[in-house]
UniProtKB/TrEMBL annotation:
It is a multi-pass membrane protein. It comes from the Eukaryota. Keywords: Membrane, Transmembrane, Transmembrane helix. It is found in: Membrane. The chain crosses the membrane at residues 149-170, 182-209, 245-262, 268-289, 359-376, 388-409, 416-436, 456-476, 488-506, 512-531. Gene3D superfamilies: MFS general substrate transporter like domains. This is Major facilitator superfamily (MFS) profile domain-containing protein. Residues 57-536 form the Major facilitator superfamily (MFS) profile domain.
Length: 563
């Protein structure tokens, strides 16, 4: 037997070390071969632009639009002008007002002019509302005659609360909690404030609680639209943004059917609509996934990858194991430190010149859109139609608006579509003046033409409203997107907060309200021409990245063609 010599042992050890070095080198090479991809690239190549997982995500988050619209437009019924009044039997023999009350009972409808001319001159206690004092807030707290403008305060404060809420939720979702947790918080606060609104003892407490409710619910729409659009491919963003508005329409359409059976008790309506957000946050919010884009810009790459793997599994696909998520600007800078930050911590929309200019234009545009969109809906009580039927017709007009808007978004530029729809809404509002004038002469024959023009005008304003929400998401990057959407919605709410005052004026002069709504819509439509086109553009991750890539794109377009 031959025993190994020391030389043979040394050679064997050296061979093992060389093998280990080769293995280590190979492992390092594999590690270096990791694919550095952006979220957009992962979605397009491996997850799928729009599959079952994204559809479930869109449906889950869009349910929040149902109670968002219910809380926004509930005052159409709770704060409506009462349907009519009548003399009290005990007051028929009253010496002061018996003859006047008896002679004018037949004319005691809900028209403001009639109330001012009749009820305001009657002795207290000689008449009563036909539906009872608990039918609306106006009936319960006597918000008529010299107190009639108090009826506009709760709705105006609701929209002002929404303005502050948009700013709060936008910053909260971008910088701290993320989209999903912010949505959960909004649901909790919406349920609480809606329920306590039903317990209001007077118009001032009621106004404050409507303000709080506006603040609370504003986070629902902001987070919903962003959570929907940040998990799909570029070509599906417009359509996905439109899908959520079907649920908003469902919420609006449900209101007259809920309100009619309980039309003599306005407080019951608030009790009922406080339940959907409570059910939603327990049953559906836990199933929603956080935005992988937000997780990435917060430096939580592993969590972002896990979300994308989950979405891919539901689409029956699989992500490669060697994917390394990056923000596109990091691919050129190669900075490892950037992976744990959003970029420059000091950068924001207002300190970035191009973003600030863009945001101001969006807000001015949104102000006019919100004023007209919500104003037309609140102005339904000034039409010569049954209130419940008018709201149903307007809600149904949202459906063709969503369908038409979704189709047009698939092949039409955002800038052109938002401009033309706003101008069309303004022209149709002004056309309503013709039928308003005719209606004052012959109410029986001119109501349907007036309602038809109003409904088509509302459909056009609805398209503008929907497109603006989608447009704003595409105009700004991930680290400022929620804030941008919140500022856009704040401007919508600011416009909406002024519309109840015009509705109050419209009770005396309907033509004036239509002229103002039309003019605002036309002017707003001209503002969007100063915004860049975003159709088929990528969703950027940081302000710096978007600025660099858009400048490069413009530089290439400006370069002269060589002959």
């Amino acid at each position: 037997m031959q025993y190994p010599t020391q030389r043979m042992v040394d050679m064997e050890i050296k061979k093992e070390e060389e093998t280990k070095e080769i293995d280590d080198t190979a492992t390092a090479a594999v590690a270096e071969e990791k694919m550095k991809l952006s979220v957009d690239e992962v979605i397009e190549k491996y997850v799928g632009s729009f599959g079952l997982s994204q559809l479930l995500q869109v449906v889950l988050v869009s349910f929040s639009w149902v109670f968002d619209s219910q809380n926004t437009l509930v005052t159409i019924f709770t704060d409506a002008q009462p349907s009519g009044w009548r003399c009290k039997t005990s007051a028929i023999n009253a010496s002061l007002s018996s003859s006047w009350c008896m002679n004018d009972t037949a004319g005691g409808g809900g028209n403001e002019g009639q109330l001012s001319g009749h009820v305001c001159g009657l002795a207290a206690g000689s008449w009563e509302w036909i539906g009872g004092n608990s039918a609306t807030t106006i009936a319960e707290w006597d918000l008529i005659c010299h107190r009639k403008f108090l009826a506009a305060i709760p709705t105006s404060l609701f929209f002002i609360g929404s303005i502050l809420g948009c700013t709060f939720y936008g910053r909260l979702a971008d910088a701290w909690l993320g989209r999903k947790k912010t949505l959960l918080l909004a649901c909790i606060l919406t349920t609480i404030t809606t329920f306590f609104t039903s317990l209001s003892p007077n118009v001032w407490i009621y106004s404050f609680l409507r303000f709080a409710n506006g603040f609370a619910r504003s986070g629902n729409g902001i987070c919903s639209i962003v959570l929907s659009m940040e998990v799909v491919g570029n070509k599906w963003r417009g359509q996905v943004g439109q899908y959520g508005f079907f649920f908003y329409t469902a919420g609006l359409l449900s209101l007259p059917f809920i309100a009619y059976p309980i039309r003599t008790h306005w407080r019951y309506l608030y009790w009922i609509i406080s339940l959907p957000p409570l059910v939603y946050m327990f049953l559906l919010v836990p199933l929603v996934v956080e935005s992988p884009r937000w997780l990435l810009v917060r430096g939580r790459n592993k969590e972002a990858l896990e979300v994308l793997r989950k979405l891919a599994r539901w689409n029956r696909k699989k992500l490669p194991d060697n994917i390394d998520l990056i923000i596109p600007s990091q691919a050129t800078t190669g900075s490892e430190g950037d992976k744990n930050t959003i970029g420059d911590e000091n950068e924001n929309i207002w300190t970035t010149r191009w973003a600030a200019k863009r945001m101001i234009i969006v807000m001015l545009f949104g102000f006019g859109v919100g004023f007209v969109y919500f104003g037309i809906q609140l102005n339904t009580e000034n039409l010569n139609f049954n209130l419940y039927l008018t709201v149903i017709i307007n809600a149904l007009m949202e459906i063709p608006a969503i369908v038409i808007g979704g189709i047009l978004l698939s092949f039409t530029n955002r800038r052109l579509l938002s401009s033309l729809s706003a101008i069309s809404a303004g022209v149709l509002c002004i056309l309503c003046i013709i039928f308003t004038t005719a209606s004052s002469k012959n109410t029986s024959s001119s109501n349907w033409p007036q309602l038809t023009i109003e409904a088509i005008g509302f459909m056009a304003s609805s398209i503008t409203f929907d497109v603006l929400n989608i447009y704003c998401v595409e105009l700004f990057p991930t680290n400022a997107r929620n804030f941008a959407v919140s500022m856009s919605r704040a401007s919508l709410m600011l416009g909406a907060s002024l519309s109840p005052l015009l509705v109050a004026v419209g009770r005396l002069s309907p033509s004036l309200s239509f002229i103002v709504f039309g003019a605002f819509s036309i002017v707003s439509g001209t503002l969007s021409v100063w915004l860049p086109e975003t159709r088929n553009a990528p969703l950027y991750e940081t302000l710096k990245q978007q600025e660099e890539e858009e400048e490069e794109k413009h530089r290439r377009l400006r370069q002269p063609t060589m002959v």
